[in-house]
Amino acid sequence: MSKNKEIAEIFERMADILEFLGDNPYRISTYRRVANILSELNVDVEDLVKSGKIHHIPGIGASSVEKILEYLRTGKISKYEELKGKVPEDLLELMNVPSIGPKTLKLAYERLGIRTKDDFIRAVRSGMLATLPGFGEKKLQNIMRGIELWEKSKERMTLIEAFEIGQEYLSYMKRLGDIIERIELAGSLRRRKETVGDIDMLVSAMHENWSKIHEHFVSFPDVKDVLLKGETKSSVVLKNARQVDLRTVEPHQWGAALQYFTGSKEHNIRVRDIAKMKGLKVSEYGVFRADTDQWIGGKSEEEVYALIGMQTPPPEIRENAGEIELALEGKLPKLLSLEDVKGDFHIHTNWSDGIGSLEQMVETAYHMGHRYVVIGDHSLSSKVAKGLDMERYKQQWKEIDRLRKRYEPLGFYILKGCEVDILPDGSLDLPDEFLAEFDFVVASIHTRFSQDNTYRILKAIENPYVNLIGHPTGKSYGTREGYPLDMDRVIQLAKETGTALELNTFRADLSPENVRKCMQKGVFIAIVTDAHAPAHLRYIELGVGLARRGWAMPELVLNTKDVEGIREFVYKKRKLLAAT
DNA sequence: GCCGTTTTCGGCCCGACTGTTTTCAGTCG
After folding, report:
1. Residue A234's pLDDT is what?
2. Which intervals hold domain DNA-directed DNA polymerase X (predicted)?
3. What is the C-alpha to C-alpha distance for residues A56 and A216, in angstroms, rounded to an integer?
4. Is residue A345 located within the same domain as residue A430?
5. Cβ of A61 < 7 Å from strand B?
6. Cα–Cα distance, A524 to A468 (Å, whole number)
7. Residue from A366, A303, A161, A350 nearest A243 by CA
8. What's residue A153's pLDDT?
9. A30 nearest nucleotide via C1' and CA
């Protein structure tokens, strides 16, 4: 775990404890804000300390800097050690349960002597909790339901899962037809965060239709439980334990609401703060004059931001990580967009472990609007993935040649590629003379995930025929951290050799932090779906979003090149390494 | 705990729903 995340977690825990103790709420939200800033930061906190920049991050004041320095020096924060002694830590875990907050826990702790999570659950079941003032039957039911829900869905969804659920729900909602003026998925899904807690849906419609819309929303066939249902706000839990929220607003409030429900929370707090300094008030219903409460705009997001005097930051970078300052100065960079993407670099067919035929994959990519695709089936040593030997690759090339006759006249190119295994000693699973015959080579690690793999990756990068390092950090979506890796050295060597690093949509590897490093160092990234079925190809849209979270610029994304550009990229590396 | 285009003190984003409550607290996003 990076130091950023470690320290962020401690600040989050301290906030929990302080909340339980009933401390100053503003101090608590400050701690949470520091935690959030640290975990969203695209830079190592250690680097910030070295450069002294740590003292100039808005939201992190002297007292927090002190704690951060202490942690880096000693591995501990004494304030946290002290706070830990004041509460039963096990019990605080329940703070994440829906319907349970600090007040409930504290009451149970003080009045019933409850010390552990299990104590608490027993107290609910035995009816002991019902003896407390203000705890009626309904409330207890909600708490019970909250505990069940929490146990089932401790993990956040992957972006892909959230996207799938969201799309299905959207098309269900659209059956209502014209009474819905606009509808969109907001929240962390719209910001393309690699994991999503719950799905936020926003609808604009005339007020008289709202109740009908909410009725329809809670009647979605996969709904298991309705958590709340009102005129403006409803919330359901699906059979798969995922939560979906709906908000309705008037058509003229659309932009303000979308801005608000897209978040992030940190971004919004900052925006409202700035609005306030300018004598304005921003809510999900619009932008208002602070003195008279007069509505002055909010039809579109652009209008909201313009009224506050800033550019509209793309949703993916709304994390209060520097985008607000740039937007105020009118200096937001132009980020990569889906329209810039011309191809995909790493897709599988049923020649190895994909479930689509070569032809199906190509056909789908063509109809999506791609101009080219790199076929990247596994090499032999990936036995579970039915890896190909040289003979079978040659057979596959014959089929590619046949398909080329059909697609090249349409301006669509099929590049012969492979995903060659990087072996334990860093050598590759196919000989150089053979690799030289591919149009494009992806090299990836599929074994020994627990060791430091820096030397293997560096050695693969040095190979003149390797153009892209597949899923470089070995991370598994949102949860597993990947193997230890000296990313700075990898990026440096990638830069020197003209090798690209892969942003793998299926695994959410590279992280935004690493994308940003690549951008700063001038290293190319390639966004790939790693598609194993035709339907996976459309996830390229999510890959673009993940790249945008790392402030990816079109100039350094391989997918923006046309097929000649790709051939040139390959040729340049071969020439460079042959010369040295 | 943080911060400053009225401020180094005194504010801190803003609103919805539920439940148990005769006017609001707790929780959530």
Report:
1. 92
2. 2-319
3. 49
4. yes
5. yes
6. 9
7. A161
8. 64
9. B1
A367 residue type, one letter: H
Integer distance in angstroms from CA A100 to C1' B9?
Answer: 35
Residue A154's pLDDT is 67
User: Which has the closest alpha carbon to A172: A244, A91, A104?
Assistant: A244
How, if at all, do strands A413-421 and A182-185 pair? unpaired
Q: How far is the CA of A205 from the C1' of B16 (A)?
A: 18
**A320 neighbors A267 (Cβ within 8 angstroms):** yes
Nucleotide B11's nearest residue (CA vs C1') is A26
Residues of chain A with pLDDT under 50: none
**Residue A345 parent element (H or E):** strand A343-347
**Domain range for residue A146?**
3-152
**A257 closest CA partner among A245, A239, A244:** A245
Q: Is the CB of A365 under 7 A from strand B?
A: no
- Count how many domains chain A has: 4
Site of tokens 């985008």: A323
Question: How confident is the model at residue A544, as a pLDDT?
Answer: 97
A414 CA to B25 C1' distance (Å): 64
Which A residues 475-504 have CB within 7 Å of strand B? none
pLDDT at residue number A182: 94
Q: Integer distance in angstroms from CA A115 to C1' B25?
A: 24
pLDDT value at residue A480? 58
What was the pLDDT predicted at A569? Answer: 97
Q: From the alpha carbon of A105, which nucleotide's C1' atom is closest?
A: B26
Instruction: Provide the H-helix boundaries in A462-580.
Output: 487-497, 512-521, 540-549, 563-579
Residue ending a domain, choose from A329, A347, A379: A329
Q: Which of residues 369-428 of A touch strand B (CB under 7 A)?
A: none
Looking at the structure, tell me whether residues A236 and A345 fall in a common domain.
no
Calculate the CA A166 to chain-centre distance.
15
User: How far apart, in whole angstroms, are the C-alpha atoms of residue A47 and residue A49?
Assistant: 5
CATH code for the domain in which residue A275 is found:
3.30.210.10
Q: How many Å apart are A309 CA and B12 C1'?
A: 22
Q: How far is CA A267 from the centre of its chain?
A: 16
Confidence (pLDDT) at A317:
93
Considering only residues 525-544 of protein chain A, which place a Cβ less than 7 A from any atom of strand B?
none
**B16 C1' closest Cα residue:** A233
Q: Which of residues 178-237 of A touch strand B (CB under 7 A)?
A: 187, 198, 200, 228-233
CA of residue A330 to C1' of nucleotide B18, angstroms: 44
> Residue A238 is encoded by which pair of tokens?
């699906």
